[in-house]
Each structure stands twice: as structure tokens, then as C-alpha cells.
Specification:
The chain is α/β, with parallel strands linked by helices. 49% of the residues lie in helices and 10% in strands. α1 packs across α9 and α2 runs antiparallel to α3. Pfam families: Thioredoxin. Keywords: Membrane, Signal, Transmembrane, Transmembrane helix.
């Protein structure tokens, strides 16, 4: 009984993670600015707005290596992303040129990810100095906890394998993506950067997958069975069974009485 209860809880967590992952990401500003603003607010809450404004004005740009990008978005798994985000120990400052990588955490089942896909697919042409990669956050959960990924799609900019900032808008367009990168790298998008029909075809899919998730189905079946089992142990179930048996006995008695007459 105890094992069933623990297993039931575990499956409920799995289902919750499936249902809540695909959502509009929470707005998160530059990581360094957030830490600074939070620290200052603990000393004097009335200076929060002033601190945030000041941190935005003094935002330090990262220096990206030229021509570090690729012609198109690279779809990666967890192992490949670990290699791409390898940190060079001799680079300790944002002022030192290093590889800049923009990572899209997405899910092929999520409609919000599909909306962002064509605009993200167009970024390699607009920013040839920045590598664009995408990882299925539902299939590879290793980075979700490490980087605070609570919903997809989520975009994160890395410099020398270190997180710099998260995308800070609720809409997903090439224009907003470009402003985000320009804000943190100082690199302007290439002229005449547009989303083409080819960007809707991939590499990141723009059509939500409709295939069944076998593990999610098994989880729901198990929950239904557990619910049915515990319901049979309830007083309500006992009352239902007793009522049916009582009605059945009365029907039999009535039928026998009519037969005797």
C-alpha cells in the first residue's frame, strides 16, 4: 500500500511536469542585473527601481568571437550541448572575446515553441557571429534545473559556456530576438534579415507534434486504476453496492411473490 502511494505520487509529478513545461516563460532579466538588484533591495527596498534603472544603463556587453556561428540552427542533445558550453578557464571576463551561443529550449509538442521556431530559424543569417542551437527540453531535462528552465520556449545567451541572459519578452519574433542579442552583445542584425518560407520547415519544427507520449498514457492509466481501487475502499462505494444488492433482493422477492400468486 505504501509503495503504491509513493509510486502514485511519482507519476503525478511526471504528469505535472508534462503539463506545465509548455507555457509562456516567466520574464527574467539579465542574470547579473537580477542578482545586483536583489542584493540592493534587501538593504533598502525603496531604492529598487533606481538600482534596476542604473544596472540597465551600465549593462556590460559580452565580446563574441567573429564568424563563430553556423549557416543554420544546430539541433543538439544533452551530450552535444555540454561540449558546446565547455568553459575555457583562461577566459574570466566578458571583455575577453569568446564563443557566444544562443540556446533555444523547446518542446516539439508545445504550440508556443512552434510559434517561435521560424523566427529562431532565421537568426543564423541575421547573426553569423553567434551560434544558434536548440535542444528539446522535454527529452533532455539535465539543463532545465541548472538554468532555471520552468517553461518553453526559453532562450538563453551563453558566453564562454557561462549564462549571460534570458530572453525577456512574451512574444517571439525575429525583431525582438535581434533586439535581445544586440542589447547584450552590441552586435546588430544583418540588413534585410527576414523570416522566409524555408524557416517554417526547420531545423526547429513549426508544427506541434501530435504523436502519443506512451509514458504519459501509462501514467494516466495507472492513476485511473489507483483511483478506482481507492474508490472501492470508500464508504460511498460500500453504500452503492449495498443499495444495488438491496434493490436486487427486493426485485427477486417481488418476482417470487408474483409467481406464487
Amino acid at each position: 500500500m505504501a509503495f503504491s502511494a509513493h509510486f502514485f505520487t511519482f507519476l503525478a509529478i511526471i504528469i505535472t511536469s508534462h503539463l506545465t513545461l509548455c507555457q509562456e516563460p516567466e520574464v527574467v532579466e539579465d542574470i547579473s542585473s537580477n542578482l545586483t538588484s536583489f542584493t540592493n533591495s534587501t538593504h533598502n527596498a525603496t531604492l529598487t527601481n533606481t538600482t534596476e534603472s542604473s544596472s540597465n544603463k551600465t549593462l556590460k556587453l559580452v565580446q563574441c568571437l567573429p564568424d563563430f556561428g553556423a549557416p543554420e540552427v544546430q539541433l543538439v542533445n544533452d551530450t552535444e550541448l555540454i561540449k558546446l558550453l565547455f568553459t575555457q578557464s583562461n577566459i574570466t571576463s566578458r571583455d575577453t572575446p569568446a564563443g557566444c551561443i544562443l540556446v533555444l529550449f523547446y518542446s516539439k509538442y508545445c504550440p508556443f515553441s512552434s510559434m517561435a521556431a521560424p523566427h529562431f530559424n532565421a537568426l543564423p543569417r541575421a547573426f553569423p557571429d553567434i551560434k544558434m542551437v536548440a535542444i528539446n527540453a522535454l527529452a533532455y531535462r539535465l539543463f532545465n534545473t541548472q538554468n532555471g528552465i520552468v517553461g518553453v520556449p526559453t532562450l538563453m545567451l551563453f558566453h564562454n559556456g557561462r549564462p549571460v541572459a534570458k530572453f525577456n519578452e512574451s512574444e517571439y519574433t525575429l525583431e525582438l530576438f535581434s533586439k535581445f542579442l544586440a542589447k547584450h552583445t552590441g552586435i546588430a542584425a544583418a540588413e534585410k534579415s527576414i523570416v522566409t518560407s524555408a524557416d517554417f520547415k526547420g531545423p526547429v519544427t513549426s508544427v506541434p507534434a501530435r504523436e502519443f507520449d506512451i509514458f504519459l498514457i501509462i501514467s494516466w492509466v495507472f492513476i485511473a486504476l489507483c483511483g478506482a481501487y481507492y474508490f472501492t475502499k470508500s464508504k460511498c462505494w460500500g453504500w452503492i453496492v449495498e443499495t444495488i444488492q438491496s434493490n436486487w433482493r427486493e426485485s427477486e422477492a417481488h418476482a417470487q411473490h408474483e409467481h406464487a400468486d
